[in-house]
Amino acid sequence: MQLWIQWWCIVSRFRSAFSRVRTFQWFVLVLVAFSVRSDLAGVTSFARVLNLKSNVYHRLLAFFHSPAVDLDLLTSLWLSTVLSLFPVHRIDGKPVAILDGIKNPKEGRKMPAVKWLHQQSESNSKPHFIMGHSFQAFGILCRVSNYYFCVPICARIHEGIVRSNRDRKTLIDKAGMMLKDAFGDAHSFVLIADAYYANGKMLKSQAAAGSQLITRVRSNTVAYESPVPVAGKRKRGRPKKYGRKRALNSLFGPANEFTQLNCPIYGEVVCMRYACFDLLWKPIGGTVRFVLVKHPSRGRMILMSSDLSLSPEQIIELYSLRFKIEVTFRQAVHSVGAFGYHFWMIDMSPLKRRDGNQHLHRRTQEYRDKVVRKMRAYHCFVQTGLIAQGMLQYLSMTCEEHVWQHFGSWIRTIRPGVLPSEAVVTDALRNTLSDFIASSISGLAIEKFISSRIDRQRTAKQRLVA
Hints:
Strand content: 15-25%
Largest sheet: 11 strands, mixed
Low-confidence stretches: none
Helix content: 25-40%
Radius of gyration: 25 Å
Number of strands: 15
Distance between the termini: 23 Å
Number of domains: 1
Order of helices and strands: HHHHHEEEEEEHEHEEEEEEEHHEHHHHHH
Structural class: alpha+beta
């Protein structure tokens, strides 16, 4: 029961994001189903794991489409909860956030924003092109002892829909707006991202908010030294803003001294060499710190930081933790099913394979409103799934002993110092679900709301079979 008490302490913080009590109760029911379900087959899995009545299925669909859910406020409340309750990893008092994209395969011909997408991956198991939704997401890096993990905060679909022919927003613009809407003006942070986000627009937007960016840059990146002041009388014209041009890839030559570093990254201690240069970068017109890294197995890499106070060792270690969001994506897809929505739009014109963006400014206002409503349902489903995943991580961190006590199964790879996975916490919650439904810890009749929608006849048959 201790697991569900801790679980409810977090869920009760989200009440203000719902304009109606009944909508909040449906949110809690969906969150319970996300936390205990064993299969990931969309909304139908919610009805199966809780043994709900058949008419509840359509009410669940109505919840994800409900205007009574303030999605932006729900995201902000979840972020503030993570920053206040989780052991957030901070640099100079600033939380560390990780930004990345994920492509979610969807073959539905009547799903808005589904388009032909290219996947860049080093793995041969992924196809190069898929039909699906393109998300941009970010999470907060947390640390327990020497164990790091990324708590998912927000994910939004940023491709596939063109609402106006005057809209010139790029994915970089939309990612910056997502971060600004979530954090607001009260928080500054350290952002870790891959080479796609290494551009002047992203750096300027983060600098305007008082935040910093750590990323990898391409091997053909060039920078400039500071201009050398001219002795004597200055010539006519504007003074030089940039000095000698330096191709960063040429700085790997033997003439430059590289410092040896034994750095614990990717779960192992690696002996690498690095060199640090503070140079002017034209996209922002200012000085940034470049760290050239020679990895024994991964080859050469050029990292960039807009924070000149960070040491090269800190920059290397922070960027090595970027892969934690990849682990979070894997758990969100395979353990929690946060991207397993299947909402179709009946009035939508069927898509064809290899179709691109869908241009809403060519359609009627009624059609546009229906597309916006469906997109909001996708975001509501994903946001609820990410919150459920974050709470599983919280229980794994704060109630490790109770998780293993109620796990009720056996695995071979129980390692000391490593927190239980989301799947292990799910099993522990599922084994104690009956205690939660029979209790009254919420004070909002949540347990009565759930139990009144359970099909007792089907539950009794399952007990007989067991």
